[in-house]
């Protein structure tokens, strides 16, 4: 299926974000990980326009832990692209660490105390995501949303509330799931694609 501003192989943004604009909030449809349409990460890099070039040194690590935990490697690399642009030295505003921007509380046992070491970082994030997926009964939309701070019942007003505070970027990106499943997971740069992927673009107002 063609990728458009509002839809792609994994569905329309209004389906992915079901309920998000109602008072009842987000009620993600139940989708299992084996039903998600993704590109192969190793072959993705063969495309000259692949957004995953920065991830090239870590492809074997994404594949190792993807295979171990039953998660397509491109899904893991997609988290890394959205979280850190695949830069292992990234430290987030709240101290989040490395490629996958894992929180400090998950850094126990890091080699030499270095939570940004790529193998440890990817392994830890993958194990965490698999645990989230299992605790959600295999619900992959809910689980990917959780990785970006979404929860069942989240409304647009709650998700975008931080726009009116000193931490504008603390908002939830309303287009996250569409950009993730129909952008990154299809070997497409969700930030530079023309047309832009999404409808809310609520982070645009953050300078």
Automatic annotation (TrEMBL):
Q: Which residues form a coiled coil?
A: none
Statement: the UniProt record of this protein carries the keyword Glycosyltransferase: no
Which keywords has UniProt assigned to this entry? Hydrolase
Which GO-annotated molecular functions does the record name?
hydrolase activity
Q: Which domain of life is it from?
A: Eukaryota
Pfam families to which the protein is assigned, alphabetical: SLT
Q: Pinpoint the Transglycosylase SLT domain residues.
A: 61-149
The protein's name in its UniProt record: Glycoside hydrolase family 23 protein
């Amino acid at each position: 299926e063609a990728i458009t501003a509002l839809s792609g192989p994994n569905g329309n943004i209004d389906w992915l974000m079901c309920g998000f604009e109602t008072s009842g909030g987000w009620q993600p449809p139940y989708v299992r990980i084996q039903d998600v349409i993704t590109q192969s990460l190793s072959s993705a890099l063969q495309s000259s326009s692949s957004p995953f070039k920065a991830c090239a040194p870590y492809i074997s690590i994404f594949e190792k832990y993807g295979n171990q935990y039953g998660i397509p490697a491109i899904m893991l690399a997609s988290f890394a692209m959205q979280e850190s642009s695949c830069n292992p030295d990234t430290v987030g505003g709240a101290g989040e660490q490395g490629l996958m921007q894992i929180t400090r509380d998950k850094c126990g046992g890091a080699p030499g105390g270095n939570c940004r070491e790529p193998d440890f970082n990817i392994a830890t994030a993958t194990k965490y995501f698999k645990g989230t997926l299992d605790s959600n009964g295999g619900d992959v939309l809910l689980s990917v949303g959780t990785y970006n701070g979404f929860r069942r019942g989240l409304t647009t007003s709650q998700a975008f509330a931080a726009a009116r505070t000193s931490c504008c970027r603390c908002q939830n990106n309303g287009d996250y799931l569409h950009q993730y499943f129909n952008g990154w997971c299809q070997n497409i740069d969700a930030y530079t694609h023309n047309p832009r992927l999404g409808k809310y673009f609520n982070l645009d107002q953050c300078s």
